[in-house]
Amino acid sequence: MGSNRHMAADSRGAHTPDAARVAAPASEAPAGSRIYNSISRRASLMQEPVLVLNATYEPINVTAVRRAMVLMLKGVAQAEELHSAEVHSAAHAHQVPSVIRLLAYRHIPQQSRALSRKNILLRDRNTCQFCGRVFPSSELTLDHVLPRSRGGRSSWENLVACCYRCNNTKGDRTPEEAGLKLARKPRPFTLHTSRQLMRLIGHRDDRWRKYLFY
Ligand SMILES: [Zn+2]
């Protein structure tokens, strides 16, 4: 960690724009800011998304670099694609993965996501399902499409992201009664949904592309 060369261009990723940036000639910026950029990039590097593949190369999840490296160190997963940067500890240079693959096949149940506020907002992409506007999570609530007072259940099919304004308008009524229309029929958060999200997260990363678009 003592070195200011926390990042070095990795030859295997040298064709990517990222690598080009990390390996950019020093003339682009004064040395001081380069060191600062390198340190601040390292902290955020550990939080960058890593695509997780099943043993069969099927994309199943997205995790952070830090977690992915733990899985690799434990021998649970191996890197399939490398990030253009690497992390240096006192004695070693660690390759940073962009895509990892589990070494043992993991059965993924059809509905693998827990029913939670966070996952409902994720499924609905932070979009109020009545007015269609996008909000920060703090400005969204969950609406029971069929109100609880009318026997509506707390389920994937009956809960949607909803802004406070629409929630007030709707009150204890069904969308039809309130003159509101659902943007789309709420469905369970399946692997299919997850894959759409993975595509959204990874659409700019060429290293993810071949696993996600097929
Ligand atoms: Zn709304």
Please tell me about this protein's structure.
The protein is of the alpha+beta class and about 210 residues long. The chain folds into two domains: about 10-110 and about 195-210, no CATH class; about 115-180, Orthogonal Bundle (DNA Binding (I), subunit A), CATH 1.10.30.50. Helix content is about 30%, strand content about 20%. A four-stranded mixed sheet has the order 2-1-4-3, with helices on both faces. The protein has a two-stranded antiparallel sheet with strand order 5-6. Helix 7 (about 190-200) runs antiparallel to helix 8 (about 205-210). The longest helix is centred in the first third of the chain and has 15 residues, at about 30-45. The two termini are about 40 Å apart. The structure holds zinc ion (ZN).
Total E-strand runs: 6
- Tell me the domain tally: 2
Gyration radius (Cα, Å) is: 22 Å
Can you summarize the main beta sheet?
A: 4 strands, mixed
Along the chain, the helix and strand elements come as: HHEEHEEHEEHHHH
Shape: elongated
Q: What's the number of helices? A: 8
Beta-strand percentage? Answer: 15-25%
Concise account of the structure shown:
The protein is an alpha+beta fold. The chain is 31% helix and 20% strand. It has helices at 17-22, 31-45, 65-73, 117-123, 164-170, 175-178, 191-202, 206-212; strands at 49-53, 59-64, 77-88, 93-102, 140-144, 159-163.
